[in-house]
Amino acid sequence: MLVRLVCVAGARPNFMKIAPLIEALRQDAAFAVRLVHTGQHYDENMSSRFFGELGLPEPDYHLAVGSGSHARQTAAVMERLEPVLEQEQPDGVVVAGDVNSTLAAALTAKKMGFTVIHLEAGLRSFDRTMPEEINRIVTDAISDVLLVSEESGVRNLLREGVPEERIELVGNIMIDSLRKHLDQALQSDIRVRLGIGDGAFGLVTLHRPANVDDEDRRSEILAALAEISSEVPLYWPVHPRSRARLEAQRTPLPESIHLCEPLGYLDFLCLEATCKVVLTDSGGIQEETTALGVPCLTLRENTERPVTVGCGTNRLAGTSKESILSAWEQTKANPKRGELPPLWDGHAAERCVEALRRFFAKPQGKARDV
Ligand code: UD1
Ligand code: UDP
Prior knowledge:
Blueprint: E1 3-9, H1 12-26, E2 31-37, H2 48-54, E3 61-62, H3 70-88, E4 92-96, H4 100-111, E5 115-121, H5 131-142, E6 145-148, H6 151-159, E7 167-169, H7 173-186, H8 190-193, E8 202-205, H9 209-212, H10 215-229, E9 234-237, H11 240-247, E10 257-260, H12 265-274, E11 277-280, H13 284-292, E12 296-298, H14 307-310, E13 314-316, H15 321-333, H16 348-361
Parallel strand pairs: 1-2, 1-4, 2-3, 4-5, 5-6, 6-7, 8-9, 8-11, 9-10, 11-12, 12-13
Helix pairs in contact: 1-7, 1-16, 3-4, 4-5, 7-12, 10-15
Uridine-5'-diphosphate binds near residues 283 and 284.
């Protein structure tokens, strides 16, 4: 029996998660895959660049939804995905991560009666002011197959009443991408291009609305970064959400904070693997630094990826100048070496395919109720 899957991706962090799964599914004659790009991210350096670098096939459908409010963006994905699914009549729809495209695709597919498969299910920050937390909770509530990256995700889903047989702990598929591309990334000349030289440096990324759109919080974070940059120069590929905010900033940044455009995956991975510390509010980067054994200060009050703190190299640094500087001092005094969490071994995609094979082999694999 041929299982026909539609994979949906739309924003930068989706691409690293979906690429290994598509590659593994394409090597298996039991599956046929179609790729839909929602177009939530659309700049060359937020989208198409990753297709070449990660070996993703050209999307079969491009929905070109672009930017907008949460409602508009979610609605646009739903409206434009519906006719695609109507035409494809897939056996399952794969959604990844926690962005608006994830939620919109899951809702559309489920209401049309299709099986929904959530890659990176079960993560919870327990902070419902985060748009991603709402996307995660709703997507998981209507998914039929929940592919989980770390053990906390299994516990969260069981506590929410998800039947155990729907939950599959497959490990972290983003780390499949990292392992596959790390050697190539280390050949990148990005350090030369940015003029970094051979000395120690820190890497910064920030894009959470709560951090970059809120002026008070942004000022606290920038003040902490300014102090840290007097000890190690900081390099900061600026997410498009943050660009305008930084340009409007009245106090200029010190010269020891170097801004650049968002980087491609290989260039970014090269910096991430070779820096002294990463300061970030990204979800995926907390995981990648743990896999690389590089200290990470997460500029947030919580994380939906607790294994990166308990087992890995991550520290929750908060968002005040004082808390960030205190975490920085701790990191210098005691840089966490960390361990690799279970199943972050580069083989998560194979386990996803096995889980899907088992699901679709069962009679209830075709069942369409949740
Ligand atoms: C989105 C996700 C977030 C994820 C992040 C990864 C949601 C709710 N948020 O946040 O979970 O961590 O992606 O990067 O889905 N823009 C451009 N060019 C682009 C894309 C965006 O200029 O290619 C600008 C637009 O002004 C847009 C803003 O960035 O309004 C925000 O984009 P959006 O996709 O709405 O949210 P992100 O902040 O990127
Ligand atoms: N990344 C990248 N270039 C950059 C910044 C990040 O390639 O300039 C990669 C990073 O290595 C990771 C992913 O983007 O694989 C994380 O995406 P992002 O931080 O945008 O989203 P989040 O994980 O927070 O949802």
